[in-house]
Amino acid sequence: MPGKQRRTGWGVLLLSLLPLFAQAEKNTPWQNYVLRCSGCHDMDGSGSVAGGIPPLPGFLGTFTNDPAGRLYLMHVPGIVASSLDNAQLAELMNFLNEKWGDPQGYPAFTPQEVKTLRDTPVADVVKYRRQLVKRYLKEGMKTADYPWP
Asked: CB within 8 A of 21, min separation 6: which ones?
């Protein structure tokens, strides 16, 4: 019918998910992971070697237990471009560290630490990660493959 909008199944689905995107402050850390991280790291945190996305399980703790690693984490593209505020991001990172990191290691992220780390410039996050991994490997610490040039 002319003048009448037709809704497809995808359109209805997207409209039903809109409140999740619009109200991030009400999302749980898992929901924020699904919405903001799983596109690259997958639902199980496995990442994609071919896509240059390192896995989280078994390796996240290396970064969360090191001040320089924590700085790196706050500059991962999906984090630095996230619409989450500092408290939400601290909550998400603590959730991920509990799930796939080392919750017995370094203290939990706080909103103030997240703010400080986000405000600290990292000119080239890929180069910075490579420097960290080189140091970690020299110190015998676990780290995932990172195939980016």
From this structure: 35
pLDDT at residue 53 in the model: 87
pLDDT at 88 over 50: yes
Is 95 within the bounds of a domain?
Answer: yes
Q: Computed from CA positions of residues 71, 90, 26, 16, in that sequence, does the dihedral angle turn out positive or negative?
A: positive
Work out how many domains the chain is built from and give that number: 1
CATH of the domain at 35: 1.10.760.10
Buried b (16+ CB within 10 A) or exposed e, 16-37: eeeeeeeebeebebeebbebbb
The C-alpha atoms of residue 7 and residue 45 are separated, in whole angstroms, by 34
Task: Domain of residue 39: give its range.
Answer: 24-138
Cα distance between residue 147 and residue 47, in whole Å:
12
The verdict on residue 41 lying in a domain is: yes
Instruction: Check: pTM over 0.70? Answer yes or no.
Output: yes
